[in-house]
Amino acid sequence: MSTVRTSDFGTGALSRAAALIHTLLTVEALLLLTASPGLAGLLLLGPDPAGLPLAALCLLPLGPALSAALYALHHRSRDLTELRPARAFLRGWRLNAVPALKLWTPLLAWLTVIAFTLTHFSATGLPGRWALLLAAIGAGALLWGAHALVLTSLFTFRARDTARLAGYFLFRHGRATLAAASLLILTAALTAWLTEALPALLAAPLLLSLLHGSRTVITQTQEEFTA
User: How many angstroms separate the CA atoms of 95 and 80, rounded?
Assistant: First the structure.
């Protein structure tokens, strides 16, 4: 009869799966908790386009929460005996809250301007092709934001350097950008077809997928842009 060594505990496939589930649930709970003031405000606003500026303010806490979640997921342990996802999340929030806000705030402001213009486009008197151009610019800004969020969560750069790197990787690593685009489309589809709350409840696995799709970006940043 085979025996299980103590040193092997926590390293098997079942243990790794349990560790992943535990990490995802913990990170999800902490993300919702830290972003809850803004998310609660969103529920009170309703769908009126006039409330877009207030919606942007409500989304401000989400930036640091997403950054902390990415940090915790990136540093997660695959060993059931070495799980500290809550500690990693809180450390990520302390390290990245301010850097994330430096990028998250202007991104939200820019997207709010685009969304407000599109929802009131008939009043602008501009040709319809300008609406398509604005929508494309907004999509590009979201993809840039996905790269910037990963970079600011895992590395310590100045905000302007992170912004430049995110723009560089937007075109340099098309596969990573396409992976981010797929996640954004999935999030939009879940919101439109089911409920606005579903992407928030699935934020942890979506962010884990973002990390997986950004592996080339992370690797190149480690090799070429860090000492």
Answer: 25
How much is the pTM? 0.89
CB proximity list for 1: less than 8 A, separation 6 or greater: none
- Name the nearest CA neighbour of 131 among 139, 180, 40, 37: 139
Where b means 16+ CB within 10 Å and e means fewer, 55-77 reads bbbbbebbbbbbbbbbbbbbbbb
**Within 13 A of 196's CA, how many CA atoms are on the CB side?**
6
Residues 6+ apart with CB under 8 A from 152: 67, 96, 99, 100, 103, 159, 162
Contact 30, 89 (CB under 8 A): yes
| Residue pLDDT, tens place only, 111-162 | 999 998 888 777 777 777 888 999 999 999 999 999 999 999 999 999 999 9
Amino acid (one-letter) located at 206? L
Measure the CA–CA gap between 226 and 220, rounded to whole angstroms: 9
Phi, psi (degrees; rounded to nearest 5) at 195: -155, 150
CA atoms of 227 and 222, how far apart (whole Å):
8
**In angstroms, rounded to a whole number, what is the distance separating the alpha carbons of residues 185 and 38?**
23
Contacts of 200 (CB under 8 A, 6+ apart): 32, 35, 39
